[in-house]
Every structure is written in C-alpha cells, then in structure tokens.
Amino acid sequence: MVDINLSQPPFSLLDEKGRQRVRDGVDLAYFNESEVILDAGQPGEHVFLIHKGEVAELDLNASERERRIGHYTAGDLFGAISILNGTSRYRFQAEQESLCYLLPRALFEDICTAYPAFDNYFRQHLAEKARHVLERRAEGGMSMARFMLARVAECMREPVVVEGHTTIAEAVTHLRERHADSLLVSHAGRCGMVTKTDLLDALVQQGLPHSAEVGGIAHFTLITSHADDYLFTALVSMTRHEVARVVVMEGAQAVGVVELTDVLGYFSSRAHAVSLQIEQAEDIEALAHASARLPQLIQTLTAQGVKLRFAMELLAALNGRIIHKAFRFLIPEDRQSQSCLLVMGSEGRGEQILKTDQDNALILADGSDWPGIEDAMGALTDTLGRLGYPPCPGNIMVSNPQWVASESAWRGKIARWASSRDPDALMNLAIMLDAHAIAGNASLLEGLREHLFARGSHDELLLSYFARGVLRYSTPLTLFGTLKRPEHGIDIKKGGIFPIVHGVRTLALERRVAATSTFARLDALVDDGRLDRPFADDLGEAMSLFSELRLRQQLENLEGNDASQEPNRVVVQRLSGFERDLLREALHTVKEFKQRLSQRFHLEY
After folding, report:
1. Which end of the chain has a smaller Cβ tally under 10 Å, C or N?
2. What angle do CA 151, 156, 158 make, to 5 degrees?
3. What CA–CA distances, in Å, run from 530 to 205, 363, 536?
4. pTM over 0.70
5. Closest CA to 521 of 507, 510, 532, 535
C-alpha cells in the first residue's frame, strides 16, 4: 500500500472505503526532466497525482510563446480529462525530475461510477466547484456556512392578510390570534403592511379611534424577496433598508413574511449587534466605536465560511449606514434634500471588505444655493477619516471642489469626458458609472446616470476606448505557465479583479445597466441576453475567489500589523493544490473574457 495524502479534493469526496481503494490501486512512477508523461492525442490510461517535481501542460497548436498553458506541482493531478474524453488534448511534460502516483484508468472509472460527486468534480464549471466547497463546509458543521445555504422559504411565516377597511381594533385581534407582529393590507389594488408599532402610533400619537381603517395607516412601499433567495440576502436587505421584515413575493402575490427576529433565531448574527450599535449612535464618537467593530465582524464571517459575495453585500450595507448617518449628523436637513452624496469605486460597487480610501462626490440640485459648502464638505471628509475611511490619494473627495457640482455642471463634465476619451477622462467615466447614492436626494443621481447612458451606450468609438482598459494588465498565464510564481507573489487585483470589474462595467454601459455591483451587473447582463448564464457564473466565482485570496492577505497583514506586505499580492506557493487548481481555472476564465471583449469592441485594432 502506498502512503499518499488524500485529504484534498477530489479525494476528500470519497469515503474511507473509496480512499482505501485508491491507496491499494496506485503505483509510483519516476519521470526524467523533459520526459513526456502524456502526449497530445494519446489515450488516457492513468490519472497522475504529483508527489514531487513539476509538470508543464503544453498546447502544441499554439504559438511557441503561448504554448505553455498549465503548470502542476506537488499535490496537483492531471490526466483525468484525458480518460473522460478518450484522448489527451494537450502534452504533459516533466520540467524537472518528478515522482507521480498513477491511478489506473479502470480503477478511476470504477470509482467515478461508485461516487457521483467524485465524477462530477472533473466535469464541473468553476462556479460549480466553488459552490461545492461551500456545501462541504456546511456538511462539516460550520453554522455560518449552513446559514449561507439556507433559503428564505425555510424561515418565512405565512402572511396574515386583511382588507384595507379592517379597523384598528380588528387588526389588533388578528395579530393576537395569529401571534404575528405585522399584517399585510390589501387596499385599492395594492399590497401594504401595518405593524404593531404602526397601530400603537395611530392610537397614541395620532389619536385615531379604534374604528379607523388600517388602509389609511399602512405602508405601501415594501421591501421584498423571493422564496428561493438566500436567507442571508434577506438579512442584507433588512440591514440596508433599516427594516425588521421583508415580504416574500411570488409574481404579484405575497406568499410570506420574514421577520428579523426569525432570521436571528435561525442564526445569531454579530452583524445585527453592529447594526444596532450604528442605529443607536447619537454622535460621531459613538458612530466611530461602531465602525471600529467592522474588521472583527469580517474576520468572524470569513472564519465561519461565509460566501464572500454575501459578506460584501452586508458590509456595504453597514458602511453605507455609517456614512449616511455621518452625513445626517453634519448636514442640515434642508441641504440634504437639495443634494446627493455619492460613494464610488469599490464602495460604490459594494465590493470592498476592509475599509478603503474615500471615493465620494456631491450632486447639487440646479438652482440651490449653499453658502459655506466648502467648509461643510471639508468637515465631512475629516469626519469620515475619524470613522476609519482614509483620504483618497487621488483627491477624489467632496473636499475637492472638482467633485462637487450642480446637476447641469455634472452633465457638462460627462459630455467633456466622453468627447475627449483621454485616460483621465475614461477613468472619471468609470468612477461615475460605479457611483451609488448613499445620502440625500437619490433622484439626482438617477437623472445623471440616464444622461451618462444616453451619451455613451451607443457611441462605439467611446466604448472601444473604454473597454481597452481590460488589456492594461496581463493575465499571469503565459510567461510562467498558468500561474506565475515569483517570491513576492502575483498581483491578484491587476491580474484578476480589475479585468472582470472593468469588462463587466463596459458591458453595463453598453446595455444601460443601472446596477453598480459587478455581481448584480452580471445577473442583469444574463437577463439582457448579453452573457450566457454558465459563463457569467464562472466570472462571478472567479471574482469571489480573487477577492477571498486578497482578503486573506489583508487579514494576515492586519493580524501581523505589518503594513509592508502588499495586500493585493498572492504567493502561489502558499496555496493548497485545490486552491491553485481553482485559481488556474479562474485566470483562464479571465483570459477568455478578455478575448470576448476584444472581439466585441475590436480591441485588436
């Protein structure tokens, strides 16, 4: 029996009996440097698992410079696809003296038949593999990971629906009998909601009689969800919109209600404790204390297996409420209705995890007069600094008069940027495309975004210049194989995150997608028919993987208090074999995305 480590995927998908079959059935083979282990066109007879050494994967049909498409080291396996397809598409050649475990074809096929999950591993897309990792964490007993897989349907209550002519007294009786905290109100063809608090306010604060109808006090702007949405998404919605319940819809029909108390009963969340502290803050100092807890919350979420996309959404909601509340503390109420505070960059897309530099701007309603606005914006910038958001090195902040302007002035800026198409102008357009209204009058941004779409969505020359940014940084797949391995690591932001973010942003401009999150834009582009679902899912999972690897480095720097470590660099040698496999596939997805964009926007010219 061979002593072989089978603790990593795909062998971790087997039970102990299956792993024992592998140990009993493998042989150990030695290969000289430059020896061809498996050649293109050759039938696949073994699955190879590297014990020592390095192996290159070569595409013999590619040019000499681009021939090397894969690089495998200890713990990696290859050859399985050759068995499934009948022959090998590529050549696998030892780059140094190598020892490999050989799993015979017949045994591999028998194990695939006996263990469907093992078989699926070799047939899955990147998105499916990443999803599988999360599911395995859940099976391992991690409460947060199980929560991440829970759907709204598992936690929703049956709705209690009354007509709009129901009296307050009758509504109270319904709540008591059904042990509910809220009622859905059907009134004049609309669906609204009334809560215990609404009924109490109507009686005590407004002095309405018990016979008053609930249709007159119900709220008809509802925060909604769907039964098959993730429960964590509902929690994010509650956090973002400052509500304690969401209504579950099926088409135009309300089929359930999810209460915050039920969600927190399903999973006790530190996020709610931080959220509560933010809401209870009555001054900047108290807000700063709440803001300082966010890094610890992130560490808890990641340690417990949270899917990074959901963590991003939750943190974006919490950061948004912090900035929103700071704006309300500092800016008079009459000025808030005449202006709109924007956050941009990763904050605007809702894709930051640890706090990033300030990237913000202000839109003023045409005709508004605000004496002393420079001092007010300077104070806001200083306050955000106290709350943990450092100044932007590029000075893209409201303290810079260039980023504070009226609606008309902003439209003029956008027109000039679109016409000049120089690098600074294109960067400014990208910044505005990611802008998200965080405080004040959000309709001011909606009008500006429509103007941006009208100016840029059909301008093929502008789109071509804009898209060219995806080629700014090379994907680390060619010069040193699939993964570069310099000691200082590969820049995951430039090589992976940026091409996806900017490429999706370009398509969003072309298709007039108002969403700012890269993930939401991907969903919208699928609905629009611009991207197919499997490829969009792979792009989303690649983005999540890059962000997770980057976050891991940032958290290590945070724990070690070593600011000299570059937070965007991932040292490939420190990754597990499975992580290298995922990273390699993710970078191939980025490369394919660049090729698609090059063809669509004629970037080769």
Report:
1. C
2. 145
3. 52, 32, 10
4. no
5. 507
